[in-house]
From TrEMBL:
Protein name listed in UniProt: L-histidine N(Alpha)-methyltransferase
Keywords on record: Methyltransferase, Transferase
Residue ranges constituting the Histidine-specific methyltransferase SAM-dependent domain according to the UniProt record: 6-311
Organism for this UniProt entry: Hymenobacter saemangeumensis
Gene3D superfamilies assigned: Vaccinia Virus protein VP39
Pfam families in the record: Methyltransf_33
Length: 313
């Protein structure tokens, strides 16, 4: 029986333009590399969003909590929770009655987060969930009471447009009028800055992308030779997409043991591994309306690089 990853790879490598989902970047090594990316000088989104939450945390907390009563603060893709702690502190300071339910696909990231929270915010009620987004959305539906949902870090940018709308509609479906969503959107800006954020000088983003092949070698018994694969990325201002690829630097064959199959790669053929969409404020309002949501308030950093947007039904 094939597992999810094996099935995904079988489908993705049989396509005319080979593609693998960036969802599979985040094994333990990939999650650690992403932590490193967030500290890189070129990778501005994390700092920009941190500045928003640091300076405007109290105002955001006030928009997110219901007028009265307890609520669940569910965070999709919680990661190390560094930015969220700012919001959690603001909510605790405002004596909000809530449980924090972080959701992340990485068990190791979750263990680290729960340990850090119990040290730093001992008064916080934490109900961790190790799951992918689809499972988390089902859990959200089943949760009684008021909800505030966080989807920070421009994770929304990693969906392609159809999946993005579908996901937002699923997020909106279980929400009632008093519930709130806070979504982080990376905004369109100097294309050179955007591209540099995904092609850093130290090569950490390259290692992050290439780690996907290491994962396939380990988990699916593949024999990708990393010496003959390269990271390539580009930003398209017309679509607002950063597209990242793994490039086969020569004609080669790769055997994947778990699939019992060998795949041919031509010289310079690519595997498309990630989209990171960048938005305008007008696109965000339009997207919200298409998903049956309205923009309650937009919080931006001083440079206007990033927006944390409060949405409601
Ligand atoms: C997780 N996600 C929002 C990151 C992004 O910016 O698209 C993942 C990433 N990929 C390369 N660098 C960072």
């Amino acid at each position: 029986m094939l597992n999810d990853l094996a099935r995904h790879v079988a489908d993705g490598l049989r396509k005319p333009i080979k593609a693998l989902s960036s969802m599979y970047f985040y094994d333990d090594a990939g999650s650690r590399l992403f932590q490193q990316i967030m500290g890189l000088p070129e990778y501005y989104p994390t700092r920009a969003e941190f500045a928003i939450l640091e300076r405007q945390g109290a105002a955001i907390a006030a928009e997110m909590r219901p007028a009265a009563g307890p609520f669940t603060l569910l965070e999709l893709g919680a990661g190390d929770g560094l930015k969220t702690k700012l919001l959690l502190r603001a909510l605790l300071q405002g004596s909000a009655d809530f449980a924090y339910a972080p959701v992340d696909i990485s068990a190791s990231a979750m263990t680290g987060l729960v340990a850090a929270l119990s040290r730093e915010l001992p008064a916080l009620r934490v109900e961790p969930v190790v799951a992918d987004y689809a499972t988390a959305l089902r859990a959200l539906k089943d949760r009684p009471g008021s909800k505030a949902v966080l989807f920070l870090g421009s994770n929304i940018g990693n969906f392609d447009p159809a999946a993005r709308l579908d996901f937002l509609r699923q997020l909106a479906a279980p929400l009632s009028a008093a519930d709130r969503l806070l979504i982080g959107f990376d905004l369109q800006k100097d294309p050179r800055r955007i591209r540099a954020a995904y092609d850093d000088a130290q090569g950490v983003t390259a290692a992050f992308n290439l780690n996907l092949l290491t994962r396939l070698n380990r988990e699916l018994g593949a024999n990708f030779d990393l010496a003959h694969w390269q990271h390539y990325t580009d930003y398209e201002p017309l679509t607002g997409a950063v597209r990242s690829f793994l490039v086969s630097a020569r004609a080669q064959q790769v055997h994947i043991g778990a699939l019992n199959q060998t795949f041919d790669f031509a010289a310079w053929e690519v595997i498309h591994t990630e989209n990171s969409f960048k938005f305008t404020l007008a696109q965000i309002s339009e997207l919200a309306a298409q998903a049956g949501l309205r923009v309650v308030r937009v919080f931006q950093d001083e440079a206007g690089d990033f927006a944390d947007v409060v949405l409601a039904c």
